[in-house]
Amino acid sequence: METTSVIDPIAQSGHGTEHAEHQHHHTETFISKYIFSLDHKTIGKQFLFLGMFWAVIGGLMSVIFRIQLGWPDETFPFMERLFAAWFTDGKLNPEAYYSLVTMHGTIMVFFVLTASLSGTFANVLIPLQIGARDMASPLMNAISFWLFFTAGVVMFSSIFLPTGAASAGWTIYPPLSALPQTSPGSGTGMTMWLIAMVIFIGSTLVGGLNYVSTVLNLRTRGMTMFRLPLTVWALFFTAIIGILSFPVLVSCCVLLLFDRGLGTSFYLSNIVIGGKALPYAGGSPILFQHLFWFLGHPEVYIVILPAMGMVSEVLAVQSRKPIFGYKAMIFSILGITILGFFVWAHHMYVTGMNPFIGSIFVLFTLLIAVPSAVKVFNWITTLWRGNIRVNPPTMFAVGFVSMFISGGLTGIWLGNATIDIQLHDTYFVVAHFHIVMGIAAFFGMYAGIYHWFPRMFGRMMNDTMGYIHFAITFIGAYLIFWPMHFLGLAGVPRRYYTFNEFAAFSQYANLNKVISITAIVVFLGQILFLINFIWSIFKGRKSPQNPWQANTLEWTSPIEGIHGNWHGEIPEVYRWPYDYSRDPNSDVDFIPQNVPLSEAEKKDYVHH
Amino acid sequence: MATTAKYTNNNQGAQRFTMWLFLVTICMIFAGFTSAFLVRKGAGGAWTHFDIPGIFKVSTFLILLSSVFLQVAHVANKKQHRVMTSVGLFFTFALGLLFCYFQFQGWKQLTDMGIYLSFNPNPAGPFFYVITFIHALHVAGGILFLSVAFIHSLILLRRPVSTEILNEIETTGKGILRIRTDLLILFWHFIGILWVYLYFFLSYNLK
After folding, report:
1. Across the interface, which of A133, A137, A243 has its CB nearest the CB of B15?
2. B42 in A contact zone (CB under 8 Å)
3. Is residue A349's pLDDT more than 50?
């Protein structure tokens, strides 16, 4: 690593691979290398593959219930042949509908966008980008994945119970979720949901502790905190949010488990079912909502921050410009992290809360618009007059910014108690959160997958399929969720199985058909992505060492992936990660972090 | 485990730091419980007031005493005093078990006083059970780790320590049980202090 030339970063990045380290005595078996691996790169891929499996299941569930919403009068005998347990006479059972909606939410929010998004990219990127051999504790890292796997096994088996999976919504509000008599899904299905979630939280915490500890303790020489790529900053704060909020969900679930199994009444009071008064007294279902949303709201930032970090990195690399406002980006993430803990009750404006307390939560909620707007401004100004390369990662990163703006603006509506009381539990809310946290996070994840695929598999993904995937997803997502805003403004409630009985809402039957058809097309578009992904692993074009000419350290590590990440010494860091298009007289428009400052630079280099 | 590439990964400090972070998550669990407790109490409605049985004072004393023994084991480990390490770990382990036994007796006395867990028409009593039970689960986890460290120390008692290990201890300042006791004292002292907090919190708020 003694190259000092600023203009020769490519020679730099391939440097060192020939120092064949013959002291490596690999006696790894198939199982220790690919299954119970302790290597962060393999564990990251495991999170990615399992997340893809869950995304297909969660997406398929949404297709099934969209078919019900689009064609409530039709019968579908072929669907009954596929999913016999959920259909009667070719029609989806109402109980199955609620189970599907619940599981779709649970799977997408927790299994895909929390565990897989953070799990994949924190594992692949943190050690490689900070210059570490592996995580602080590779064993804990593996435990994190296998707890996630176990939670998935429990959750997945609950789908096949004769009484059905949990059906009280992904927010599992009691008393519906607490009492088996209230619905078939609140029986064993709900118990398994809770057990799966407690295991899942264990996985998230074990992983998160490790990510934070790794970022703070294992950075390479010269890698100060303010030289970290924004991906690492985002994943770091995501892990901190998880550490502070997920334990509260444990408390929340433990009290619910006691109510369900041991006859306590923490959340239950004055309940009459079928004319029979139940012996529960003295509890409060609102208490559950407070505990749940104390996690539930920070949870949406756990979902969106990694996507934000990856989009920041992708936009800077692909527009060949330094990120605009690097420190503003960091402090806005910090601002979101802190404010995110003081807004949970904006999910509860209709619970009869004191309007004065409501107005405080309105204030904090609207304050989050400030750091969010800073970030949006910085992404747009990063793109502004950039030398933008058009490729799938760029498309998805720009798509993310579009989605985040569209969904963020409706967030300002819903953050106001006065508007929320009107729009609560309508399709407006469904449209808002799907765009701002569902679709946007998926776009960030896709940008990250297309961008770091070469780092993970040593090959490039196919661009043409990538563009088609982008077009279908981008147009389709707006076609699905944009009309839902108008449904919501017209008062159409969410969670309804059918609107046939309501003259006011049945006029939207055709609109619902359009949404359902688009949902099916978008689902098929994701299958195209999967084909591209799997095909490229085996047959994709071989990737060069640094395919995007990026500055961060992961592109200096041998692209084939070795245990310990670097042959010989770990590279030392001399500069921040965003020295793009720095020297107008140079042929090369990037200077990797491990290139020392030139004599000319030493005089006026402003970034630490 | 297969042998993989040898590389130096300076993560001793990282592991202690991770333990601190883990303690933060436990704090958050009990912050969740105690805030739920206070919110429910403040909301009015039925709320039993009772005096916590005196037996919980005994368990408070036991867990604090066990911390003293663990400190002895930790110092002995650093000084490579193998017998004292084992003795200290054994008494910590035994007092931890005794703590759990006394907690169980306390719950029985509470039930005898007529404060039930199930179908109790007000949640003050059930809150006490749940919070102390979840704390006891953490103690049980600590006992598990203690027993691993204890068995490790017994093995070292029987087997002479190789010069290689002794050299490593000499250069790194680690004890014969490596950093095992460093992580254990953090966790065990923490759950001891947590119990003292819970004891005062509950006895003050239930009175």
Report:
1. A137
2. no
3. yes
Q: How far is the alpha carbon of B108 from chain A, nearest alpha carbon, in Å?
A: 16
Give domain limits for chain A: 35-595
Helix (H) or strand (E) holding A7: none
**Whether residue A361 has pLDDT greater than 90:** yes
Break chain B into its structural domains and give their ranges. 51-206
Cis peptide before A94 (omega within 30 of 0): no
Judging contacts by C-beta atoms under 8 Å, the chain A residues touching residue B3 are: 25-27
Best of A217, A246, A567 to mutate (most B CBs within 10 Å, chain B): A217
Helix (H, G, I), strand (E, B) or coil at A167: coil
As a whole number of angstroms, the distance between CA A39 and CA B163 comes to 31
Tens-place pLDDT, residues A120-165:
999 999 999 999 999 988 999 999 999 999 999 999 999 999 999 9
Chain B residues within 8 A of A23 when measuring between CB atoms? 6
- Mean of pLDDT values over A34-46: 90
CB contact under 8 A, A247 and B46: no
User: What's the rounded Cα separation, in Å, for the pair B165 and B170?
Assistant: 9
Looking at the partner chain, which of B2, B31, B130 has a beta carbon nearest the beta carbon of A29? B2
* CA B33 to each of CA A139, A190, B201: distance values in angstroms, whole numbers, following the listed order: 30, 22, 12
In the CATH scheme, what is the code of domain A35-595? 1.20.210.10
The ipTM estimated for the assembled molecules is 0.88
**Of 3.10.690.10, 1.20.120.80, 3.40.109.10, 3.30.230.10, which CATH number belongs to B51-206?**
1.20.120.80
Q: What pTM value is reported for the model?
A: 0.91
Q: Is the pLDDT of residue A5 over 80?
A: no
According to DSSP, residue A362 is labeled H
Of B15, B26, B46, the CB nearest to A282: B46
